[in-house]
Amino acid sequence: MAQQDNTVTINGKPYVWSELSEAARDQLTNLRACDEEIARLKRQQAIAQAARMTYSHLLERELPASAEKH
After folding, report:
1. Other C-beta atoms within 10 Å of 10: how many?
2. What's the pLDDT at 70?
3. Is 49 a member of any domain?
4. Strands, sheet with 7-10, edge to edge from the N-terminal-most edge strand
């Protein structure tokens, strides 16, 4: 889905924005909002993964050199 000037491309087909129904324009707006939210969540996931890795490394540094076997 790409928009250029007054056209929007959906599934490889160009459509004139002003010729789309209000419902179609609303759904495009919803799709864009979903895409933005997915991108935001991916950034949040990357941050959480980096933090987890850091915590894991910090934990390893705090563990005794050799673990006791039971």
Report:
1. 16
2. 63
3. yes
4. 2-4, 7-10, 13-16
pLDDT tens by residue, 10-56: 999 999 999 999 999 999 999 999 999 999 999 999 999 999 999 99
Determine, yes or no, domain membership for 59. Answer: yes
Kindly report whether the global pTM for this prediction surpasses the value 0.90: no
* Structural domains of the chain, count: 1
- In total, the chain counts a number of residues equal to 70
Query: What 3-state DSSP class applies to 54?
Result: helix
Q: For residue 68, how many C-alpha atoms fall within 13 Å in the half-sphere facing its CB? A: 1
The larger pLDDT score, comparing residue 58 to residue 65, is at 58
In a domain, residue 47? The reply is: yes
The reply to whether 16 falls in a domain is: no
